[in-house]
Design a protein that fits this description.
With 103 residues, the protein is an all-alpha fold. The chain has one domain. It contains 4 helices and no strands. The protein is elongated and about 50 Å long.
Length: 103
């Protein structure tokens, strides 16, 4: 009977960790979207110091979330070009990578 309780507690812990990891991923995605929006805005308004400060704050927040995620859930990384399209769910086609660098 002691083994059943231990397994049940372990299962609850795994479920809790999975839920925490999903919440962190959702917050990371939201933070990345805010950063992308601010980057696009700053492309056309490079002298807006308030927007720069907001971007820096979001960047710090993202770094903290990433560190927390990696400590709790494992590595988090973006691989390949045009990661922002995948992050935002735009019409990304993996074959595009094959043809981007062609003359």
């Amino acid at each position: 009977m002691g083994n059943k309780n231990a397994r049940a507690e372990e299962s609850v812990c795994v479920d809790d960790i999975a839920q925490v990891c999903e919440q962190l991923r959702a917050e990371i995605r939201t933070t990345q979207r805010a950063m992308i929006d601010l980057m696009l805005y700053l492309d056309t308004h490079p002298l807006d110091h308030s927007a720069r400060q907001q971007y820096t704050a979001w960047q710090s927040h993202w770094a903290g979330l990433k560190q927390k995620y990696e400590q709790s859930c494992g590595p988090l990384g973006w691989y390949g070009p045009r990661w922002w399209e995948r992050a935002l769910g735009y019409g990304y086609d993996p074959l595009d990578d094959c043809f981007e660098n062609r003359p």
